[in-house]
Design a protein that fits this description.
The protein has about 290 residues and is mainly alpha-helical. The chain contains eight helices and four strands. The chain has a domain of about 180 residues: f41 fragment of flagellin, N-terminal domain (Up-down Bundle). The longest helix has about 55 residues.
């Protein structure tokens, strides 16, 4: 025999369909509460899903750029710290040279030793100011490129400087040529305050070169500080922009937990009412059946 469908009254079928719809909505609401998402896939809402995905991908790309900016700031801070150390050392050298002008022969011997020891540290400081293999203080060939976006060619290029002794104390006139030559020859006597024939004039020439170095360090420090400030501003902007993109994606996909909780309570109440209505419809049919008894 062919299978036959159970025939329900119009009232019972209407109540059943309503109950099935309510059960489906309860299931959807429970999924939203458990995942926190009102749009978990393109099936839920294709337009919102793909818009949110585009915003999320953009935020992810910018997060990578944000990390690059952060690392660039660290690179510049390492260079800035190196410049500060160089500046302090050169100023110490200048103080020693100034003291030598009025020093006794015995004092000059000690000052000469101090000067040589500090001067030999200058290149060491410059060479040690590296960050992740990049040193912006010991070569003009060094180059730091910071990218800000994947949607444009916005970049910042920062070039290194030669703040070794060979580049730090160049210029200032031919009168101090011998002093410059001494500075660029490590291992040789940089200056001998106690040496016969060392005059106040020669020491003044040396001080002039030291002042040239101080001026160069001051200029390099200002340039680095300006770049650090700009990168920090750009980093803050990128962080905020990334947050905005993530927030926008959330508005398209995240569920309102409070609203969904209230919906679940209402739907469960509706489900109970539907069950009762279906039972009432069944009771009506049983009443008709009792007429035949």
């Amino acid at each position: 025999m062919a299978n036959s469908l159970v025939q329900l009254s119009a009232t019972s079928r209407s109540n059943l369909l309503s109950l099935q719809n309510t059960t489906s909505l309860i299931s959807r609401t429970q999924d939203r509460l458990s995942t926190g998402l009102k749009v978990a896939s393109a099936i839920d809402d294709a337009i919102s899903f793909f818009q949110a995905q585009a915003l999320t991908n953009r935020a992810s790309d910018l997060s990578e750029k944000k990390d690059g900016i952060d690392q660039a700031i660290s690179t510049l801070k390492a260079a800035s710290n190196g410049i500060d150390a160089l500046d302090k050392t050169v100023r110490q050298l200048k103080g020693i040279a100034q003291s030598a002008k009025t020093a006794t022969v015995t004092e000059a011997v000690d000052l000469t030793a101090q000067f040589k020891e500090l001067a030999n540290q200058l290149d060491q400081i410059s060479n040690d100011a590296s960050y992740q293999g990049l040193n912006l203080l010991n070569s003009t060939a060094a180059h730091l490129t910071v990218e800000f976006s994947t949607a444009s060619t916005s970049v910042l290029s920062i070039y290194g400087r030669n703040l070794l002794v060979s580049g730090l104390f160049t210029g200032g006139g031919a009168a101090a040529g011998d002093v410059q030559s001494s500075f660029t020859s490590f291992g040789a006597a940089l200056v001998g305050f106690s040496t016969a024939g060392t005059t106040v004039s020669a020491i003044d020439d040396l001080i002039n070169y030291l002042e040239i170095g101080i001026d160069k360090l001051r200029g390099a420090s200002k340039a680095l500080s300006s770049n650090i400030t700009f990168l920090q501003t750009r980093l803050d902007f990128t962080k905020q922009y990334t947050n905005n993109l993530t927030e926008g994606a959330g508005k398209l996909t995240l569920a309102d937990i409070n609203e969904e909780g209230a919906n679940l309570v209402a739907l469960q109440t509706r489900q109970q009412l539907g069950i009762q209505a279906l039972a009432f419809a069944g009771q009506s049919e049983q009443s008709v059946l009792s007429l035949f008894n």
